[in-house]
Design goal:
mainly alpha, globular, about 475 residues, 2 domains, disordered C terminus, 18 helices, about 0% strand, Hydantoin permease
């Protein structure tokens, strides 16, 4: 294990280097408006964008979740987590060009929702997005604290949280989204270094007892694992589409071809990363049943490798934290256009206060995540149907309401009582049960069906012409990469 002073020093040095690089790169363009602060439209080539997609979504929480899913849900769970990341990228590749053409001079996906379905729908989608992203920020800070104390048991959990928050805010308040994009490539490279460490550890430094794989069935294809796969694919894909950071990167693509190419390239990074960490969890469980998943495989390795892990943790944490903060700022400034650049920067800074409290106390926020996942699943269909010209405001609102009603009815049926409908919004059985799987399936399917039916039954408003939505693919410019 590392001394706490070494861990602090390595983390601070890493984040100072990240902040310095981000500030230098972002200062090439003056940030003199809210739009420039939360947007970087048509500026990024495919290779850089692929790393941006990957780094924005893969925080230090993956060092907990991916190894754990390999042990808890077996091979089906690993496939489920992998598919959820890939499916999210594929949706962005397919839907992204249409929303880019409808975006105009606006900034976020909720701008498109406002243009198509009005302010009420925009506020509802923004609320879900901000709620999900704030919970993600608090979770990321919690993971940073836990990971640091695992590597250095004598470390104080508040110190790494404050280091990540302060240094991330330092470059984010100066450079905005462009500073966040500037750091993504290097953070992605750090993750590749992590993969190398994992592979080296599994191949050369871990001894698995004979017959352990067959005796434990840790990699088995089970019914419970398949239910987990279905639930994960729906829940994670839906929630990813409410992450503003992904949509900001969609609009940062140089053109539509760049976007599609970057999404496919990001999948090529997501797949080995997810599988390697899940496999590391299985190997760690077999070799060190009482150890911390993933980290136990480093037990026989030198301190140099542990230092590399601290560097990667710092990179992962800053990459996700800056993306979440600038994403929430974009959502709020979109819903309240009277907010100035100063207000946007204040929002970014103040967001951290409650997140720091949650991260330091290490509260169990799983229930909040489950609420967010269900809300995202119930609203994602109506939101994405904004690319369908025939979709109407009434249809989208009806579909969104149908999502909430569907969750409520599933709870009443599952628990056999009226109050069960309210309880079901926190999924008391957790993500990994048959009832939860069924809830996610019907909550995904029913809202878009209702949206389509109501839209077809609703006459078009006078101002809803074929040209008003601009849903053609945006012009294809020649890419430079």
């Amino acid at each position: 294990m590392l001394a706490s002073g070494v861990t602090y020093g390595v983390m601070i040095a890493t984040l100072v280097a990240v902040a310095a690089y981000a500030i230098i790169v972002s200062r090439r363009m003056e940030i003199d408006s809210v739009k420039n602060f939360v947007s970087a439209k048509n500026s990024t080539t495919s290779l850089r964008l692929a790393w941006c997609f990957f780094s924005a979504g893969m925080g230090s929480w993956t060092l907990f979740s991916f190894p754990a899913i390999g042990v808890d849900a077996g091979s089906w769970g690993v496939i489920g987590y992998t598919m959820s990341g890939v499916c999210g990228m594929m949706v962005l590749a397919v839907v992204g060009p249409f929303t880019r053409s409808a975006l105009g001079e606006n900034v976020t996906m909720t701008d498109v929702v406002a243009q198509r379905f009005g302010y009420i729908m925009q506020v509802y989608i923004s609320f879900i997005s901000v709620f999900y992203q704030f919970i993600s920020l608090a979770s990321e800070l919690t993971c940073v604290a836990q990971l640091t104390t695992m590597l250095s048991p004598n470390a104080h959990s508040l110190i790494p949280i404050l280091v990540v928050v302060f240094l991330t805010n330092l470059y984010l308040l100066i450079g905005g989204l462009r500073a966040s994009l500037a750091t993504d490539v290097w953070q992605g490279i750090g993750v590749i270094a992590l993969l190398a460490v994992v592979c080296i550890a599994m191949c050369f430094h871990v001894s698995i007892p004979d017959g352990a794989w067959s005796r434990t069935n840790v990699a088995a294809f089970t019914v419970e694992g398949f239910e987990t796969l279905v639930t994960l694919v729906i829940a994670v894909t839906a929630s990813n589409l409410f992450f503003t950071g992904f949509w900001q990167r969609v609009y940062a693509a140089y053109d539509d071809h760049t976007l599609r190419k970057a999404a496919f390239m990001a999948c090529g990074i997501i797949i080995p990363f997810t599988v390697a960490l899940a496999l590391a969890g299985m190997v760690s469980y077999l070799a060190y049943p009482d150890g911390d998943l993933f980290f136990a495989i480093l037990i026989d390795m030198g301190h140099g490798w542990e230092v590399l892990i601290v560097i990667v943790i710092a990179m992962l944490a800053s990459g996700v934290s800056d993306s979440i903060q600038i994403g929430i700022a974009a959502e709020l400034t979109t819903c309240f256009p009277q907010l100035s650049l100063l207000h946007a920067r204040i929002i970014v800074a103040l967001l951290n206060a409650p997140a720091i409290v949650i991260g330091y106390q290490q509260y169990d926020i799983l229930n909040l995540f489950l609420i967010a996942d269900l809300l995202c699943t119930g609203a994602v269909g109506p939101m994405l149907l904004g690319v369908w010209k025939r979709a109407t405001r009434t249809g989208a609102l009806a579909g969104s309401a149908a999502g909430l009603i569907t969750i409520f009815i599933c709870g009443v049926i599952a628990q056999g009582k009226f109050v069960g409908g309210f309880n079901w919004f926190i999924l008391p059985e957790g993500l990994y049960s048959q009832n939860s799987m069924i809830t996610f399936i019907v909550t995904l399917v029913i809202p878009p069906v209702v949206t389509v039916i109501v839209s077809l039954m609703t006459p078009k408003r006078i101002d809803e012409t074929e040209d008003s939505y601009l849903l053609e693919n945006s012009p294809i410019h020649s890419s430079k990469d």
